[in-house]
Amino acid sequence: MREAVDDFAGHLAAVRNRSAHTVRAYVGDVVSLLDHAHRMGCAELPELDLAVLRSWLAKQRTMGAARTSLARRAASARTFSAWAHRAGLLPADVAGALSSPRAHRDLPTVLRADQAAALVEAPGRFAPAVPPSPPAEGPSRPSSPAREGSQSSTPDGKGPQPSSPDGKGSRPSTPTDDGSGPASPGSSDPSPAADGVAEAVLLRDRALLELLYGTGVRISEACGLDVADVDHARRVVRVFGKGGRERAVPYGVPAQRALDEWLRHGRPTLAAPHSRDALLLGARGGRLNPTTARRIVGGYAAATGLPPISPHGLRHSAATHLLEGGADLRAVQELLGHSSLASTQIYTHVSVERLRTAYRQAHPRA
Fold first, then answer.
1. What does the alpha-carbon distance between residue 297 and residue 303 come to, in Å, rounded to a whole number?
2. What is the pTM of this model?
């Protein structure tokens, strides 16, 4: 069975071109399934049947797994079963008839337009309320989360991820760092050099926030950008999203100003030999880590007195404000990089004010 799991992981990565997060999630689910099957007396993979699959899901439910987790694990089981049948490891696709609970989908949390404006303008007015954390070393392009609403790492089965988790393939590796402040926690008399780094970090934070809200890109996509991905003349950023799908996303004048300030006065201060082409850098010169970027967004939200918000919350806010401003749903789908319009339609449930406006304008009894 171990060999089958290894072959399945290779199939997901090499043939289906799934992201590292997706492969990890699928393989973890399959290992759990096969362990449960072994405990039920299935010594060989061909002995796996629908009853074992249902027993496995029932056990997960009794252990407190959420509906979304059960839906994901059922999807993993179906994918594995179909692959094993095609590979001749199973006499039939035993999971073809496996049903799963429909995942509950919460409405996304969004900021009002004035709250979003206050957040992106916070750098320079407030210090981010985040503690320093140790740097993390890793590949240049952070892997894209496998799920959109969440940005959780559950598999969504969407698209390929070629040779690196982010789908951009063969770009050279750049260490990531935590992007925390320039001075050590115990320093009390920062040097002029430290002041320069602190100012550069603020410019970086402003560029990050303007980019996230101005384009609606995912946090992994923002941190994975290179300098060459920004087309200043057309005010467009080239983004490689889930499955390595490339799209061009426009950004506005405020984001352009923030990026120009960062590239002219901030990035040169933080840049190091290992920075290479990364657009957003941490305080130590490595590519900005998505985990740190989430802390930055949450820290400024706390300092500004806003509700708790994540980078994905800014993405939700951008999509909602676009729809409330009259943008076409298909256009918003393209901007967000959704492969299915169903993923974009959730934002129509958030735009209640837009519905009220349309009602007042169109209904004769309004």
1. 10
2. 0.66
